[in-house]
Amino acid sequence: GAVVSQHPSWVICKSGTSVKIECRSLDFQATTMFWYRQFPKQSLMLMATSNEGSKATYEQGVEKDKFLINHASLTLSTLTVTSAHPEDSSFYICSARVPSSDTQYFGPGTRLTVL
Amino acid sequence: AQTVTQSQPEMSVQEAETVTLSCTYDTSESNYYLFWYKQPPSRQMILVIRQEAYKQQNATENRFSVNFQKAAKSFSLKISDSQLGDTAMYFCAFMDTPQGGSEKLVFGKGTKLTVNP
């Protein structure tokens, strides 16, 4: 149990375009999901907390208008990187919290490369 | 703000031997959760073990066990009978209880563990 999927696993896009990443909890309902960014050989950096049916809470320094988060259902949260630039290239990871155990389970990540 | 410190950037161990990864944290809360996650080369974050601060008994999961010292704010991970598949980056993480505060995970910088044949 507690499986989280992410799609796509990797994406290459041109500078100025937008990219959407999906995060799904496959076998449980997640009222709260989280989006992280990870640079090479570094730890995970929390970008935002996504709550179903309400606006996401962004961490300090994360641009809300650039990283749009939508948590439209109890099993799906999306992260849209708008007007992507090469500096947005990174590994993006989502997680979903299992309410009964207060434990986060992670998706496999999405590698974004902006040319 | 809570902080998590992993003082060993890299470690190595021979297959079948035992290794201990260190983690210390700082918090003023009395109830919280602690986790160890592993991130193998595939980069999938995998939960290794979970400890609730109000439980004095150390958590165990097969070959993985923790030494939780609440007063010392220490949470080390012991891996017994190390296997090649244990090669990964290991992250220690702290979380307040949702009732007590943020449900966000605070991660350490990680320890890269290599298991040698």
Provide structural commentary.
The complex is a heterodimer of chains A (115) and B (117). With 115 residues, chain A is an all-beta fold. In chain A, the strands form two sheets. In chain A, strands 2, 4, 5, 6, 9, 10 and 11 form a seven-stranded mixed sheet that branches. Chain A has a four-stranded antiparallel sheet with strand order 1-3-8-7, with no helix packed on it. In chain A, strand 5 and strand 6 form a beta hairpin. Chain B has 117 residues and is an all-beta fold. Helices cover 0% and strands 52% of the residues of chain B. Chain B is globular and about 45 Å long. The relative contact order of chain B is 0.34. Classes of the chains: A mainly beta (115), B mainly beta (117).
Structural class of chain A: mainly beta
Low-confidence stretches of chain B: none
Q: In sequence order, what are the helices and strands of chain B, one letter per element?
A: EEEEEEEEEEEE
Q: Using the alpha-carbon principal axes, give the shape of chain A.
A: globular
Contiguous runs where pLDDT drops below 50 for at least 5 residues of chain A? none
Shape of chain B: globular
Rg over CA atoms of chain B: 14 Å
Radius of gyration of chain A: 13 Å
As a percent range, the share of helical residues of chain A equals under 10%
Largest interface, chains and sizes? A-B, 20 and 21 residues
Largest sheet of chain B: 6 strands, mixed
Continuous helix count of chain A: 0
Overall residue-averaged pLDDT value of chain A:
93
Instruction: Count every helix of chain B, treating DSSP H or I runs of 4 or more residues as helices.
Output: 0
Between the first and last Cα atoms of chain A, what is the distance in angstroms? 37 Å
Count the strands of chain A? 11
Overall pLDDT of chain B: 93
